[in-house]
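Objective 1.3, modelling of assemblies. Example input:
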Amino acid sequence: MAESIHDLSKLCVHTQTTKPWSLEECIRNYAAAGIHALSVWRHLLEDLSFAEIRKLMAGHHMDVVSLVRGGFFPAGAKHKRDAAIDDNLLAIEQAAEIGAPLLVLVCGSDPDQSQELSRDQIREGIARILPEARKAGIKLAIEPLHPMYAADRSAITTMAQANNMVEQINDRCLGVAVDVFHLWWDPDLKQELFRCGQAESLFAFHVCDWNVPLKDMLNDRGLMGDGCINLKQIRSWMEEAGFDGYREVEVFSDSYWAMDQQAYLEKIKHAYLNFT
Amino acid sequence: MAESIHDLSKLCVHTQTTKPWSLEECIRNYAAAGIHALSVWRHLLEDLSFAEIRKLMAGHHMDVVSLVRGGFFPAGAKHKRDAAIDDNLLAIEQAAEIGAPLLVLVCGSDPDQSQELSRDQIREGIARILPEARKAGIKLAIEPLHPMYAADRSAITTMAQANNMVEQINDRCLGVAVDVFHLWWDPDLKQELFRCGQAESLFAFHVCDWNVPLKDMLNDRGLMGDGCINLKQIRSWMEEAGFDGYREVEVFSDSYWAMDQQAYLEKIKHAYLNFT
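Predicted structure (tokens):
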């Protein structure tokens, strides 16, 4: 089993976790709470200039772990696939502007076509944006999503599929973002994490919990310790597999978003220190 | 690709599909609509004696395909696991009484323990009831459920896991119930169906569709053709794998249950003939 966590030095919070806050509020409030890493959701980039964001980050000693999210490559119509490429190229630029070394990809899926075709289009899409990512010094991480999102959000639903695609494309800039919410149930998880680690492709680690019962498919995630995921076990596998990066708290939760967000941030720290 | 379906001879409807109807209404109305096979949900057994049910079935030339459902083996406390065994033994008796050759198992999962331990308890539970099933001439089918139910309904979430368990227990009375709702997304589905067919363990085939978006995790299933599942493809794999039994329509749907059920039954037949 992994060592207990004693400090916040590897805690990263996704801005979407505290959705009621603006990017500026996230930066100021995380830093005031002793949290010095965040992953930025793209819609928050609209409120500030890149220069303002960089200044705020620097002033609060804030490390930007990733930009969330690119992807959504598959579509029946070519003009839609091209539009997705443009959007991903924009995301790469945005990541470079705010100093995020990684762009997370929610790869997409089109319910009007087969999963196989969607995966082919994901492969093509990633291949098209990789040269620009490389040029900009930005890594890309495929985030396999839970199979309940297979129809319209991601045709990549397991670590095995993510590993397969990373191996097929075979580029040092491409790896995997592991999110326990999506992958905890998979009996092959341990071996596929090790396979990914062996290939040095473990690029990110997202934590939260699976509430029982789950009241909503999207916005009823739990904080670590709230649900049934054996988080310490999965963290130990990640570490055995060679991952030593941030643990990113990514929680979408109508009930936590309804709380006072300062009090919630304290709960996040407690859950991180005790149940991750 | 499989042949088109031209008649209703292999259509079976689950009583839960037309949930507003009593068992007697299901039997009378299905038969009047030209449907002569059904799978019976256990709570409907409370309203009639076994003799009455047998008489109704015979009088309407109704074939009973399966009794739904046993299972739910895992639990932390031994007395709960023992109670589950008792309930499964009762289900075997009930199946024998109404002439159902098969009992479908929703295997269960306990969110307070690991999936591995839950699977161990499923294996033990099945091993304990198999001798009684064999004596009664009742087959048992493990139904792998979608991973979104892994926490509290089934620690068996893929065909691969179901096949593994069937191979481990290795008893001619134990096989698999394939439900497209649970399994459609799995990239290994085809090969695992073939593996199951090779072992002569394909015991049942449940059809419906996956609505996009899915509004409810339990009761928003679509009729065949409503959603994104490539049903004809999966049926062709089943048939190539050697399955030639009933296609069982199992749809849980608040919106269809709110319809006039006679009109709905006509929709079921149409969906079966055109989109299965």
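Residues 115-136 of chain B form the longest helix (22 residues).
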